[in-house]
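Forum > Structural Biology > Help requests

Title: Can anyone predict the 3D structure of Enoyl-CoA hydratase/carnithine racemase?

Hi all, first post here. I have the sequence for Enoyl-CoA hydratase/carnithine racemase but no way to get a structure on my laptop. I'd be grateful if someone could post the structure tokens.
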Amino acid sequence: MSNSVIVTRDGPVAEVVLNRPEKHNAVDLSVFEGLARAGEDLKRAEGLRAVILRGEGPNFCSGIDTSLFTANPDPKALIGKILELSEGESANMFQKPCTVWQELEVPVIAALTGVNYGAGLQIALGADIRLAASDTRLSVMEITWGLIPDMGITTTLLRLMRADQAKELIFTGRIVEAVEAAALGLVTRLCADPLAEARAMAQTIAAKNPDAIRRDKRLVDEAWHMDRAAALRLEAVLQSEVIGQPNQLEAVFARIQKRAPNFR
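Reply #1:
Sure, ran it for you. Structure tokens for Enoyl-CoA hydratase/carnithine racemase below:
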């Protein structure tokens, strides 16, 4: 894996780090490939309970590295990559670094600071939870390059905000400050130290029944836009897979006995 994306592991929690601080963690091909590979590897990681996404240095991600434009003066090759799908994939190579986090069964928490523009915002939107510092600034900035946002934003942004609000941000590319971002739903909440908060939250999640947590994520992701009957049925099916199982019983006994649970 390229050094532009680093994965570390602390017991049940993994951290995925965008590691190009000298470029404000701008996304080049190595970052596209590194994030996608990291996500796929974490799908198979044993004992994983939560993932944290963060950027090295003061900025989460400033967006696309402009060298991608200057290094590819002929758009035909780029268009070919945009339209190409690997076998079994629904996302192309540019969408995968953002959408792969939705494919993980465990919660993904993004710790946001500084600039989160264009590709950076779309990567963050792929997380389940976004914790942001007061200096965080966000923008759907693709329009400034004459482009549309095409890194999976249709599977993320439209779940978070009204269509007219999304259109305004997409049409104008304006920069949104942290307080407004929280009000709009672009970030989950603001905190003084997003990384410390993300690590604490990840450990809290890791201490819960992993069978329930995985199904919690699936329940919200799938049921949020289902019709009433399908959503209620999904609740029942997922609960039937959890209730009475060893980890669920361990949660009950640990609570009654006032001790830390020991999940498998």
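The chain has a mean pLDDT of 95. The longest strand covers residues 5-10.
Shout if anything looks off.
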